[in-house]
Structure formats: C-alpha cells, structure tokens
Amino acid sequence: MAVIDILIPPACLVCRSRLADGQGSLCPECESQISFVKDNFCYKCGSGLNDGYCESCGETVFNFELSRSSMHYKAPLTELMHLLKYRGYRSPAFLMAEKMAESLKQYPEFEDYPYITAVPLHRVRRRERGYNQSELIAKKLARLSGKTYISPVLRSRYTLSQTHLHRTQRLSNLAGAFRVHKNWQVQGKKLILVDDVFTTGSTLNEISRELYKAGAQSVAGFTATRA
Ligand SMILES: [Zn+2]
Ligand SMILES: [Zn+2]
Q: How far is the CA of 21 from the centre of ligand 1 (A)?
C-alpha cells in the first residue's frame, strides 16, 4: 500500500468526496458511472462492432485465441488509470481487478484457463513507477478468481511509449520486445494475459506470439478497459 493511501482520510479516488467506512475507493456516484463492456463486441478480439464488422480484425490478424475487456475506457476509468500510471496510486489496480473478477463470470470462455499472467514492464520503467500496474491487476484478479498467477514473460527491450504511435508504428516498436523465460514452463498451458487497456491489441498480440512459440496451448487476452 502506498504511503499516500494510508495518510489521506477515506475519500473517493476520483471526485475526492468523503467516503463512509467500508465503502471501498469510489463514491456511489462515481461507481455508478462505470460502463461495462456487455454486448456488440467482436467474439475474437473484443472490439466494438461497427454494423457487425470488426475493424480491428480487418486490419490485424490476431495470434491470441480471443480477447475480452471489462470496462469502457471513459470516466471514471480514465481518471483511475491516470492515478495508477502517473501518480503512484496502487488502489485503482485493485478496484479494476475486482470489476474484472465480476466480468469474468460473464465470460464462460475463460473458465478452462487456469493461469493468469501480466504484460511485463521493462525494468527501467518499472523502477520509475515503482510497480507494474498490469501485474498488480493480474495478481489480484488471480486471487479473486482462484486462478494461478505466473510470470513467464520478460520485456527484453526498452520500447517507446505506445501512446502516441500509429498502428504500424506500434507493431514495429514492439518487434522483439518480449521473450519467454526458459525456466518457466508454459508448454501445454492455457493462459489469460492481463493488461490495463486494449487499444490496438498489438501488445497482447506480440506477447501471445512469444507464448505460442514457447509451447503454450492457448492464450487469451483480458484487459481492465477498452479504449
Ligand atoms: Zn466520487
Ligand atoms: Zn475483432
């Protein structure tokens, strides 16, 4: 737990209104604004459909078996993500994991995936931030869903932030950025690969390819949010 989480009296993470004891980290109003991904998504990659057509799958051949997201990337998730990634707050990760655990129940396709892993951060960026936000989410989700957390993937190359890159730049930026640690046996395993946000799916795609090369039986993406 971050020092900041202890010192400040319980207040809503987003609007700072005071919280009653045991209310968690969001006030009821902010909580009610969370928008879950429920329908009209592509069965393969989980992107929103446009007249029944998936533009993401039209542009990219995805390696993963399937991908799903829990919530739409809009308020209050945009604010929570900012706190988590740039302000040193860990608690949004745990909140996101709780929501993902609820979503998981609506996605029977994940039932026979016993393992959860996270998109790794390069150690330099991890040191800057103090933690890997996707790993915080994934570990908590594993505990809540009774699955086993493993960390077979390494980020071997420092990459530019994907945020301001186009789709093709994102793919070349990530080429060769990940590898599977040879001491981790992923052979024959079915894994859920967790990340904070699904934008173009290029990160999940690149890691999935490495996991398949290392012998994984199946890789499915699951992100807290979808841009
Ligand atoms: Zn609030
Ligand atoms: Zn799709």
A: 14
Q: How far is the CA of 124 from the centre of ligand 2 (A)?
A: 33
Ion ligand 2: protein residues whose beta carbon lies under 5 Å: 42, 44-45, 47, 54, 56-57
| Residue whose C-alpha is closest to residue 203's, from 132, 144, 145 | 132
How many whole angstroms from 149 Cα to the centroid of ligand 1? 31
Query: So where are the chain's domains?
Result: 29-226
Whether 59 and 167 have beta carbons less than 8 Å apart is answered as: yes
pTM for the structure as a whole: 0.90
Q: Which fold has domain 29-226?
A: Rossmann fold (3.40.50)
> What are the residues facing 156 on neighbouring strands?
none
The closest of 96, 101, 102 to 80, measured between CA atoms, is: 96
| 152-208 pLDDT per residue, tens | 999 887 666 666 767 777 667 777 889 998 877 899 999 999 999 999 999 999 999
